[in-house]
UniProtKB/TrEMBL annotation:
Organism: Pieris brassicae
Domain Retrotransposon gag: 75-132
Protein's name according to its UniProt entry: Retrotransposon gag domain-containing protein
InterPro entries: Retrotrans_gag_dom
Length: 185
């Protein structure tokens, strides 16, 4: 004998499984990267994902990516996303309250390897700062001709900051190798 609560739970479960993909897609409106629309966009996408079945989620993720315009499209095109959670975090970090170019540059220049931090952890931290800085440069840059030069300059700066921020013994060893890129270092 089923209780009323069991019947309600089963009907809610079957309702989410029976929602057609076309209905879920109506939740998702275009997103242009503006900060004032970010949280409503994320909220709508969250709601669509909650109602989607497992088989609908990959299609939904691709549809969300197709709904990006302008700055959002540019930023999202430089990375591959495997889940909505990953994309949502990326959008919040890129278009939510964020540091400006000068603050990002300062973060990169002041980075130092912490006493209990491995070289690979420090490297990831520097790469993360560089990635945020390059994204800001790409989004803010109006002239495509200047973009490659700015990117190269920031990559060289990141390499220099990485080497100088290492502990002295490791820094000397890396400088002797004369690396040409952050990955090589």
């Amino acid at each position: 004998m089923s209780t009323k609560k069991d019947v309600e739970l089963r009907s809610e479960s079957s309702m989410s499984e029976k929602l057609e993909t076309s209905v879920l897609l109506k939740f998702i409106k275009p997103f242009d990267g503006s900060r004032d629309k970010l949280y409503s966009f994320i909220n709508n996408c969250d709601n669509a994902f909650k109602l989607a079945s497992q088989s609908q989620k990959p299609l939904l993720l691709n549809y969300i990516l197709c709904q990006h315009e302008n700055k959002a499209e540019t930023a999202a095109s430089i990375k591959d996303f495997e889940s909505w959670e990953q994309l949502s975090q990326f959008l919040q970090s890129q278009f939510g309250e964020r540091k400006r170019y000068a603050h990002l540059l300062l973060d990169l220049q002041e980075s130092q390897q912490l006493p209990n931090e491995s070289v690979s952890q420090y490297s990831l931290r520097v790469e993360s700062s560089l990635y945020k800085l390059l994204t800001e440069i790409t989004l803010a840059n109006k002239k495509k001709v200047e973009l490659s030069g700015k990117i190269s300059a920031m990559e060289e700066l990141a390499l220099h900051c990485f080497i100088m921020g290492l502990t002295p013994r490791i820094s000397n060893f890396v400088r002797m190798k004369n690396p040409q890129s952050l990955n090589e270092a």
